[in-house]
Every structure is written in C-alpha cells, then in structure tokens.
Amino acid sequence: MQPYNLVDRKEFINMVKVLNPRYSLPGRKHFTATAVPKLYNEVRDKIRQELSLINKDTISVTTECWTSIANTPHITITVHVITSEWALKSACAHFDDDHNGKNIAEVLRSILNDWGIDVQNIMSITTDNGRNILKSIEELNLENAHIFLVLLTI
C-alpha cells in the first residue's frame, strides 16, 4: 500500500511517462475524493448484497487492535458468515483510531451499520482479552454473544 501522494512524486510521474507517454496520470485528489470512495461504495454494496442472502444469526466477528512502530493506533474488524451453500464469506475493515473501549464499540457499530448488520445479530466474537475489548463488548450489549478470548503470550 502506498500513500496517495505517490502520484505526485516526480519519480513516479517519470516512470508512468516511460511506460505510456500518452497516459494522463490523475492527481492525489482524484483518488481521495473520487476513486477510493467509489471503490469503497461498490465493495460495501456487494457486502450488503451478500449479507442480505444469509441467515442473520450466523454472523461472527474478529477484531484486532495494535499500534504501529510509528505509534499509530489501528483497529481491524472482520465479519465472517457461512452461506447456505456452506461457503465462508469474510469482509474486513480497518480504522486508524484510538483503542479505548468506546472507540472500538463505535467503530464496530459504524461498520456493521454501514454493511447493514444489526449488532444484536452477532453470534460470536473472537478477539484478545484486553480490557478495551471487553469494554467495547459491554458498550455494545453483546454479553449474550459467544465470546472467544485469545490469550497470546509472546
């Protein structure tokens, strides 16, 4: 994954000109304002379509929080479902947000709403056993979901 400003770098522009001198390279703003939001909407609509065809009581979620070496917080949420044909479908979303329980709950609620999933339809959650994760489960009133806490010792 490269930053959006890659398309503004002289070296990249020169490389593209060598590959195809007639190609008009879009600027960073095109990707941030048009291309990536359009792609997100297309993927979201596909996820919604696929989720509309499954049993709503079979939704499982995994979450992971970590901080990069540059001290940037990250939250990843993956939704897993099994279709009536026994095919596993997964969709993943990533956020750069603080790891407190309230933020994790809001991020989870936001992505599930965006994908057309009712939080109360979550059958199971697999995550680590950090206090922040437990707090987010409490914030979402998911105490009745099957919760699998993974303890990793490194």
UniProtKB/TrEMBL annotation:
SUPFAM superfamilies: Hermes dimerisation domain (SSF140996), Ribonuclease H-like (SSF53098). Signal peptide: none annotated. This is T-complex protein 1 subunit delta. It comes from Trichonephila clavata (Joro spider).
